Amino acid sequence: MDEIRGDEIRGKTEGTATVPLSVLDLVTVGQGRTATQALRTSVDIAQLAERRGFHRYWVAEHHSMPGVASSSPAVILAHLAAHTERIRLGSGGVMLPNHAPLVIAEQFGTLEAMAPGRIDLGLGRAPGTDGATAAALRRTDRLGEGAEDFPQQLAELTRFLDDDFPDGHPYARIHAVPGPVQATAQGGIQSPARPPIWLLGSSGFSARLAGVLGLPFAFAHHFSAQNTVPALDLYRESFRPSAVLDAPYALIGVSALAADDEREARRQVLSGALSMVRLRTGRPGLVPTPEEAEAYTFSPMEREFVDSWLVNIVHGTADEVRTGLDDLAKRTGADELMITANAHGGEARLRSYELIADAYGLPAD
Question: In this model, does residue 185 exceed pLDDT 90?
Fold first, then answer.
């Protein structure tokens, strides 16, 4: 295995934060906005996050959703790498069953060559979309097999990243480039490091697998809050020390949005909630404006969903968000909080991260 040290995985606490703070980006596109504007906002947020001391910035893979422009995490990460200098960048995550392991190894080997020592490879086993789109991505309708084969796909990807298939294996003479093979070529010099693998999940499957393999684990609290504590407990109980980590390390994705006053925060998160209502009822679209969300008449069933959705979004003034995040970290024992802000406009998202950074006294430059 190429060298991966725990300090490349464990985050650094800044200011008065009790755990490291990071950012999860869905590259959301609001009504009246373009994907180009959304991607420019992602650069602005990544630069703000780097300047203010957030530890890492991840991009999530989603498909066939008009309001989410993050279908190609590797492409977006290359763009962000060109506009940042220090912050860790990664996938939160790449959906492994959608892709050939060799392709992922090549993409993230390329990213590592672009931004040495700054790349994380977060992997999930869900499709990141609906079944029909997943079938189009994978060119098969046998979707269940992709999830069931996840451990084998993970093992294959790891061997491509480490370039250590055993002699006699059908892939023994196949190499992911950029990668370790370049160090063995005549005159070759190659960094011994490679992106650390994280497993992502919203249930117990990946929690247990990450623990057994001694890998870091990222849990999707932002859309599976009821499973957070059980999954983290399972991860810790299953954990076996490895060459990667000597002790468990788990982050959780958290929906959080801070604004200058409570009413504005509520307006912003309501637009995201309406967007989720439409997605869950088969009507995905661009993120609606706060004005549209306020004027929308929710059915009783939709209102029930919105109320249950909003209770798991930490929102309000900066101090209220800080208190909510601290309480969540304490309740779950998470080692790191990765904050995602789902709002209509980039200005609201930028303002939210700035306010949260101020609330924790994160570095100003």
Answer: no
Cα 28 from chain centroid? Answer: 14
Q: How far apart are CA 55 and CA 27, in angstroms?
A: 19
Give the integer Cα–Cα distance in Å for 161 and 178: 9
Tokens of 56: 């890492």
**Whether residue 93 has a cis bond before it, omega within 30° of 0:** yes
Q: 199 near 239, Cβ under 8 Å?
A: no
Phi, psi of 162 (to 5 degrees): -90, -10
pLDDT digits (tens, 9 = 90+) for 196-254: 999 999 989 999 999 999 999 999 999 889 999 999 999 999 999 999 999 999 999 99
Average pLDDT over residues 78-95: 96
Give, as one character, the DSSP assignment of residue 93: E
Angle at 211 between CA 207 and CA 214, to 5 degrees: 135
Please state, in angstroms and rounded to a whole number, the distance separating the CA atoms of residues 262 and 310. Answer: 14
Pairing, β 314-316 against β 217-219: unpaired
Cis, bond preceding 178 (omega within 30 deg of 0)? yes
Closest residue by Cα to residue 14 from 323, 358, 340: 358
Closest by CA position to 343, among listed 25, 28, 44? 28
Q: What is the pTM assigned to this prediction? A: 0.94
291 has pLDDT over 70:
yes
- Can you tell me the distance from the alpha carbon of 202 to that of 125, in angstroms, rounded to the nearest whole number? 10
CA atoms within 13 A on the CB side of 301: 4
